[in-house]
Amino acid sequence: MRYMTTMWLPPDDAEESQMSQPSESTVDAVVIGAGVIGASIGLELARRGWQTLNIDALPAAGFGSTSSSSAVVRFSYSTFAGVAMAWEGMHYWADWQAHLGVDDERGLARFVQPGMVLLKEPGGHHERCVPLYDQVGVPYEDWDADELARQLPTFDRGSYGPPTTADDDAFWADAERQLEGGIWTPDAGYVNDPQLAAHNLQRAAEAHGGRYRFHATVTAIDHTNGQVTGVRLSDGTCVHTRVVVNAAGPHSAAINALAGQADRMSIGTRPMRHEVHHVAAPANTANTANTANDRTTQIADGDTGVYLRPEVGGNLLVGSLDPECDDQEWVEDPDDFNRAVTADGFERQVLRAARRLPDLAVPNKPSGIAALYDVADDWIPIYDRTDLDGFYVAIGTSGNQFKNAGVAGHCMAELIGAVEGGHDHDADPVVVAGTHTGLRLPLGTFCRNRIINRKSSFSVNG
Ligand SMILES: Cc1cc2nc3c(=O)[nH]c(=O)nc-3n(C[C@H](O)[C@H](O)[C@H](O)COP(=O)(O)OP(=O)(O)OC[C@H]3O[C@@H](n4cnc5c(N)ncnc54)[C@H](O)[C@@H]3O)c2cc1C
Q1: Over the stretch 315-331, which tens digit does the pLDDT of each residue have?
Q2: Beta strands in 113-205, from DSSP E residues, in sequence order
Q3: Does the C-beta of 321 come closer than 6 Å to ligand 1?
Q4: Residue 374 — very low, low, confident or very high, per pLDDT cuts 50/70/90?
Q5: pLDDT tens across 115-145, in order?
Q6: Is 370 in the pocket of ligand 1 (CB under 6 A)?
Q7: 251 lines ligand 1 (CB under 6 A)
Q8: pLDDT score of 407
């Protein structure tokens, strides 16, 4: 029988911990990282009665890769667990205030729901997703070519794939056929301020006694007899704890190495540079494209290799879906990479967007952001314990886990509670009950020692 958690009981010493003033030198759990994932784990543990300390090298929550996120909330993953997590995860954003249970003096991040159209082309990603939507219960409409034309009248519906780069003659060829249609998910959307979302989670954790320490770099993870005993910081401080969570984003591999776990997992993680570009949306489309009810929407376009997301103020974000023709930009040192958008990258993606939006002006001056994904070998995250007792990982988020911050925090807290309570997660992977949907979320899919998951898209689609 599978272990299924619905509620986690606090550790034995929780009562005593709550009575004594938490100290930064001894806590129940250290979370390395105050990005949206680390902040969510901190909140969920604090809610369950743990004395938590999130430690981050940067000055504030969400200042790492979270701050550059497109923060798209969609459901188009390649595995049951991927779709189930995203569907459950959306519900956290849908009532963010209720999830937090507190106010933030800076205001709350806002979930905007313009929906998303996943374009259909032969062999396209929708073929994996639609059966999973049926299984999970994600609402969608299946638009044929005529309905796509009715819904997105200003949109070029030619089929140009597979994606190419603009220096390839094939890029400029006329379409020989039309797209088959699109899969419309009305509940998809985006979060308007990803960094603020992390700050919101910080404030919520603090309301439960959770603590944060910024400008502090973890330089060592101490352990004795196979059990974590604490972390050491660059300023010489020691923090004693029996639980450490690696939520260090693109620094995840370096943190695993500090814990002596770099070679103890089948699935590795590596930082990869990505650019997202900003352009003014064409005047004839309010943002991305008009639907019949005159709403703007998001587009996932595997046929040209980009996604399009509306932005406040009439702008458009153009991101990459990692088409095979594009070079992958692996980064050796996550503290040393080109943070400027390149003219080549800008032109490549914005020209692809212009195929769909013929009136899109391609500016001479590139605009956008360059940041790092923490990519797992199969582009599926690792939410797991490790071979070092007390050392947990929430890593390999592969450019696609912002949306899952709420549910990932819940799952990690359930997992940590179960394992610290004596459950053998490796032998009998924990299945978490989704708080909002009741879906069973099988954490075995996110195991560190899985065989590479061949169902994956091996792209940001997960
Ligand atoms: C360009 C881009 C676009 C994206 N778009 C989307 C999207 O549309 N939808 C989606 O769902 N996801 C998206 N993602 C992915 C999503 O943003 C990430 O999965 C998520 O933000 C990762 O959060 P995190 O908390 O794990 O990492 P981070 O936000 O990177 O936080 C990790 C933190 O750990 C700290 N840290 C590292 N090492 C140490 C150390 N030794 N000591 C102390 N602190 C340390 C860092 O300073 C950092 O603040 C995108 C990502 C990028 C880069």
Answers
A1: 899 999 999 999 999 99
A2: 116-120, 141-144, 158-159, 177-178, 181-185, 189-191
A3: no
A4: very high
A5: 999 999 989 999 999 999 999 999 999 999 9
A6: no
A7: yes
A8: 98
The pLDDT value recorded for residue 11 is 39
Q: How far apart are CA 77 and CA 69, in angstroms?
A: 18
Q: What is the mean pLDDT of the chain?
A: 92
Tell whether the model's pLDDT for residue 1 goes beyond 80.
Answer: no
Domains annotated on the chain, with CATH: 4-88+194-268+378-446 (3.50.50.60), 112-188+271-373 (3.30.9.10)
- Between the CA of 373 and the centroid of ligand 1 the distance, in Å, is 7
User: How much distance in Å is there from the Cα of 374 to the middle of ligand 1?
Assistant: 7
Give the residue, out of 66, 202, 235, 375, with the most ligand 1 atoms within 8 A of its beta carbon, to mutate for a pocket test.
66
Q: Is 5's pLDDT higher than 80?
A: no
Q: Is the shortest distance between the CB of 278 and ligand 1 below 6 Å?
A: no
CB within 8 A of 273, min separation 6: which ones? 329, 330, 331, 337, 338, 370, 371, 372
pLDDT given at position 154: 87
Substitution site in 40, 202, 322, 401 for ligand 1 pocket (most atoms within 8 Å of beta carbon)? 401
Q: What percent of the chain clears pLDDT 70, i.e. is strictly above it?
A: 92
Helix (H) / strand (E) element for 415: namely helix 405-420
Q: Which stretches does DSSP call E strand in 269-424?
A: 269-280, 298-301, 306-311, 315-320, 329-330, 368-376, 382-385, 391-395
Residue 349 Cα to ligand 1 midpoint, Å, equals 22
Q: What is the DSSP string of 94-108?
A: HTHHHHH-S--TT--
CA–centroid distance, residue 66 to ligand 1 (Å):
4
Q: Nearest C-alpha to atom 35 of ligand 1 is from which residue?
A: 33
Q: Indicate whether residue 276 lines ligand 1 (CB < 6 A).
A: yes
Q: Report residue 155 as tokens.
A: 């949109």
